[in-house]
Write a structure and sequence with these properties.
With 320 residues, this protein is an alpha/beta fold. It contains 13 helices and nine strands. Bound molecules: SN-glycerol-3-phosphate and calcium ion.
Length: 320
């Protein structure tokens, strides 16, 4: 028996079109929309978004060095972000990883060590290290390959050192700029590190130039208690339903969340509740680099700032 499919097909085509249209409306206009691609209303002006250079402009310079900070400033970032740790002799240095291996030549300068942890090296030892050549050799974001780094910048990077917090703050002050200091959780010395960071910020009169953040929320609370004049931020991957309570308890007014949180309906709802609780609460998202994603975030109403390795890219978007 021959089956005639023509009539059912004609009937089903308009239904499919209606279903696709309905799905589009649902995704693009609904309040529970989890996709920043689609949510494009409410922001008053696009330039409200804070451009935060993640570990400096780390796509075009070795991360967490003074060169990366300066390049971020030149690229138009509103502030830079860097990571703070203790050395063995309790100096504060700017470095992300727990060890010195990835971002310095420590293994060739100090071969056969049992530990390459930052906390196992004195400041003098760390200052002997080359913190730039790894970047030139590995070109982690292909920016050297693409001609985005000049020869004179390359020459300068060969001299790069791990900076102290004091050096980072001095540069920030000279540029009349801002910095987000992320304190890495460091076990037993946690209380001391936050005390020393706050003490240095106070000594340099830089309360207005600094935000202190950490994944360890007790450190954030301590910082806020030590000096309420210094802004503080909680770092989380995804905001939980009790996030407002945590903000109130710690005294933080900024929440730094992972970009992936914006793909979770529950996390978005928690952010909405936080924002609804008062204008003083700001939300920054880390770490976003793709051009399209940055463009979407510029128009995303729950987000006030973005950490990016490409501050120049975000500046161009904000200016366009
Ligand atoms: O502060 C935002 C971001 O820097 C947190 O992640 O691993 O880059 O320090 P991480
Ligand atoms: Ca960080």
């Amino acid at each position: 028996m021959e089956i005639n499919t023509s009539t059912p097909c004609r009937n089903i085509v308009p239904l499919i079109i209606v279903a696709i249209f309905a799905a589009y409306i649902l995704l693009s206009g609904g309040n529970n929309n989890v996709n920043p691609i689609m949510e494009n209303n409410n922001r008053m002006t696009e330039s409200e978004l804070t451009n935060i250079a993640h570990r400096g402009a780390r796509s075009i310079a070795p991360e967490n060095t003074l060169i990366a900070a300066r390049k971020a400033y030149e690229a138009g970032a509103n502030m830079w972000e860097t990571d703070v740790q203790f050395t063995k002799d309790r100096h504060l240095v700017l470095i992300h990883d727990e060890t010195l291996v990835r971002t310095t030549d420590v293994e060739s300068v100090y071969p056969n060590r049992n530990s390459y942890a930052v906390r196992d090296f004195t400041l003098d030892q760390i200052k002997k290290l080359d913190a730039g050549s790894w970047f030139l050799d590995s070109d982690p974001f292909d920016r050297i390959d693409q001609g985005k780094v000049t020869q004179s910048e390359i020459d300068e990077m060969e001299e790069a050192k791990v900076p102290t917090l004091r050096e980072g703050l001095k540069l920030t002050r000279r540029l009349d700029w801002k910095v987000n200091l992320e304190i890495k959780p460091v076990g037993s010395s946690a209380g001391l590190i936050v005390k020393n960071v706050v003490g240095l910020v106070e000594e340099m009169n830089m309360e207005d130039n600094v935000v202190i953040s950490s994944f360890d929320h007790s450190l954030v609370k301590t910082a806020a208690e030590l000096n309420p004049e210094i802004s503080t931020a909680l770092l989380v991957e995804e905001p939980e339903p009790d996030i407002l309570e945590s903000m109130r308890e710690t005294g933080a007014e900024t929440l730094n969340v992972a970009g992936s949180a914006l793909e979770e309906a529950r996390a978005i709802e928690n952010l909405r509740e936080l924002k609804a609780a008062g204008d003083k609460y700001t939300v920054n998202v880390y770490t976003v680099n793709e051009q399209d994603a940055l463009k979407r975030l510029v128009r995303y109403p729950l987000v006030d700032g973005v950490f990016t390795d490409f501050p120049g890219r975000l500046t161009s978007i904000l200016e366009s």
